[in-house]
Amino acid sequence: MAMNKKSKRRLVAMQRILIAGILLFSVSLSVILMFRDRLSLLLVSNVQTELLDITRQNSMYVDRKIAGIFSSMEYVARDLAWSRDGTARRVRYLTEVNNFTRVGAVDIYGRGLEGPDIRMTDFPGIKLSLRGERKVVYTKRTAFDNLNAMVFSVPIQMQGFIMGSVYGILDVNALKTMFNFSAFDGNDESFIIDAEGRMFVQARKWELARYMDSYLAGWQQPDAAPELVRLYTKVRQNRYGVERITMPDSTQYYLACRPLSSVSDLYVLDVIPTYVVQERITGILNSVTFILGIMLLLLLGGYGYSEWRQLKSQERIYDLAYSDALTGLGNLEKYKLNMLELVRKNQLKALAVIVVNIRGMKAINDFMGYKFGNTVLQLVADKLKAGCREGESGYRGNSDMFYLMWRGCDRGELERRLRELLDGITEVYAHKEGSRLYLTAGVYIVRLEDFVSEEEKRKQEIASAVEGQLNINAMPVEYGGMALDVDESWPMDVAGNARLAGKQIVQQNCNAVSFFDEKVVKKMKQEKALEDGFQAAMQNGEFVVYFQPKYDVRGASPVLSGAEALVRWISPEHGFLPPYIFLPLFERDGNLETLDRHVFELVCRQLAAWRQEGRQLVPVSVNVSRRNIAQGRRFVDEMERTMAKYGIDKELIELEVLENDASVDEDTLITFLRAIKSSGFRIAMDDFGSGYSSLGLLYGMPIDCLKLDKGLFDGWQEDMPDSDTSLVRHIIQVAHETGRVVVAEGIEQKYQVELLRRFQCDYIQGYYFCKPIPADEFAEFMEKERL
Ligand code: C2E
Ligand code: MG
Ligand code: MG
């Protein structure tokens, strides 16, 4: 059951961790995805920048090259303006430095100054240069060599007067070497285009070149493809632009474009298929996602591990705080917690709180050692736990106090279950240890409705009355809905009632179950009143001594040989009270020693009075409670002072000490008895045979008399076999052998007297001869007996 709760708690915690984990996972995942998205955008723009960079490089190279070509040509043109000498050599020089396939010079009519005549219509660029501009024009299949070429031309002029033009023809393919082809793993293609979209310098891949050529035709026109329009607009505004275009066959490319600065209307265009970019980006994104994923997994793992550790340590703390280390049962804190939880849940109408106690646990610990005591506690705990059903639980309080929370409120059923459980424990223990272990159980049936506050009840009544009036669902008021008027101390109050019920058990040496009821409370209250009334009773002289005669049965007929002083409380309030009612109460708060001294004084005073009256006195035994043993010599001194006060001899007083029990250790008892003995008192050991003492104990005890407990004769019957009386016979024999006399107590029957006489018992005290009687009656009795 406890296990169930533990695993339930664990399950809840796991659920919590799982939910938090899922939450963490989804948050992190969306962050990663968002990041991936952003990164992808960043990468795209990065790629675009890179692309533009390549374009810039390319355009710079081309510009520089073109500028170089032009300046070399202008240099030659200037020379030619001054003199034609060496024209052929200079023109050759131009061919060498510029890789021209052909170089020439013409006058304004196209007549060859160097090289052949040309038709102006074939070379519109040259025609334009005659207007004073340097010019480069792309010409497909030039008139000379049928080459795709760039025709460079610069005017030959002097003092603003144009004399002709120097031209050079450059195979476009020569420019290709200037382009950076290593970018994007060689997937980048560079072109130079003019305003109409014609290609000056073609790409390496002629297929793409052809493709682009037709796509780009008229790219600056307003009716061109929208992405081309956009590209051109950007180029015009910023002197650069990048666009993603989709070709008719739906392949996609990035186009980056820049105008050349050395020649108007020429543009460097870089083309790269989007899949190249995409692959690259996806590659980066995948690695980044992978790393983030690993980090997320580590994070989740770390989170899960730390939560698990925390759960474990919480469980450990919980165990330490709420369970009993020895038995594994819940402790009192846990009991309180569960009781309050029960109230909070408000489902049960009634339950039983049971306090189970092991009889003689202290003696077990003292005589058998704590280790053994612990195994007893464990055994009992295990059995109690096993005796709990679904929804019930067991706890261990202090020492040998166990608490059970059981369902149900049927006394008969509860008693049957409890008896079965306790008897089961006794049986198992007997089987294991060969001796008897008994337990007591005090039961308090908690009817939770008793704890509903008056206010709450009133509210419910009003509510039900209103419902009744309006006739809406005139249902009975459900207890389940009512708030209970209990506080933190309630669980222990309730357990206190169960404990009280347990304390009421009077039967000895058996398992016993007792239910709390109002009578029990009343009795408790009475006991409390008695306890509280001690001082007043002492002052008012309410304690009186009765005397029970004791007979010497050794002779032919019994002879009165003494008496035992037995205290009685004659209370105006409570009536006549025998000692078993009040002595245990006084034992609890230390009044017993006071009472013993008081009784001793009353006896001495009585003896002195009888002597005064001239009566012949018999020895009187006075009971000394165990409480006095610890006082040792002090007690003896006080007794002696009292006797001296009344002039009573020690032969007239015998002290009765109870046989030892677990509360006094043997050495202390022997020291005490020696102190009494050495001051000359006779000592009787009372109630011998009722408890733990053994005959062996007799040898070391300085006692004169053994008082056999009534219990030894209780099982006797007339005409029983000898074997049934052999114990008593044996005790008497050993007592005599060790020089003690024997008194048999509680003798009521004639056959008992006869048997005891046969066994050579020395004295008999019992109702058979006389009950305890008041002092004046006893005085008369003495007179009578003496006659
Ligand atoms: P105890 O010292 O063993 O006293 C004998 C008890 O047995 C007395 O009970 C007596 O009335 C009872 N008794 C004697 N003969 C018979 C019999 O034939 N049948 C039955 N059923 N009972 C018999 P009582 O007077 O009720 O005292 C009970 C116990 O209280 C005493 O047992 C003694 O231990 C204790 N006690 C009595 N007076 C004092 C006292 O002044 N001081 C102390 N410390 N204890 C006292
Ligand atoms: Mg006695
Ligand atoms: Mg006795």
UniProtKB/TrEMBL annotation:
Keyword terms of this UniProt record: Membrane, Transmembrane, Transmembrane helix
UniProt-recorded Gene Ontology molecular function terms: cyclic-guanylate-specific phosphodiesterase activity
InterPro entries in alphabetical order: Cyclic-di-GMP_PDE-like (IPR050706), EAL_dom (IPR001633), EAL_sf (IPR035919), GGDEF_dom (IPR000160), Nucleotide_cyclase (IPR029787), Rev_trsase/Diguanyl_cyclase (IPR043128)
Pfam families in alphabetical order: EAL, GGDEF
SUPFAM superfamilies (UniProt xref): EAL domain-like, Nucleotide cyclase
Leader sequence residues: none
Domain GGDEF positions: 349-480
Source species, domain of life: Bacteria
Keyword Membrane assigned: yes
The keyword Plastid is annotated on this UniProt entry: no
Protein name per Swiss-Prot or TrEMBL: GGDEF domain-containing protein
All copies of domain EAL, residue ranges: 527-786
TM regions (residue ranges): 284-306
